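Input record (one chain):
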Amino acid sequence: MPDTPTPASMHKNPANAPASAPSHLSGTSGSSGGAGPSGGAAAAPKPVSERGRTALAVGVVEKIAGMAAREVSGIHALGSGLARTFGAMRDRVPGGKSSVGRGIKAEVGEKQTAIDIALVVEYGVVIPELARQVRENIINAVERMTGLEVVEVNIAVNDVHLPDEPEFEEEEEQMVSSGQRPKLK
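The corresponding structure, as predicted from the sequence alone:
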């Protein structure tokens, strides 16, 4: 899928620029377009929605989708085992930021987006119902906040968290304090 153009790339590439610039920006002057006594009626100004482009970064859609998914109860974590391992290490680094979009991959076009999400669910939840709720919540949040049409939300359930399993962060902390490397799944 091609990258979404940025305002800077649109400025560099005249093919993406509007066909005609407004007369006050083109450097030409004249009285023929005015509403004065010698000119006819002025052309109606373009609607605000046609006076520029809004480019959304992939990370924006991923963060919105991640927050929307976390609002659904029954999800233990987002991401595959490897992504969670590296994410937990990154979270421990001073100055490191936790990634809200961890476990989410989005493709963003000018008007549409597609989202893939990897989940770890709590034991006992009905997975098809949970997937429906997650999909619905992500679609509503992304479409409301970005104006993009969500064409699909693909959900991969990678694991089930059992009640007697230690928390992932606790395992990680014990390994780091004992000098062991984390186990890769």
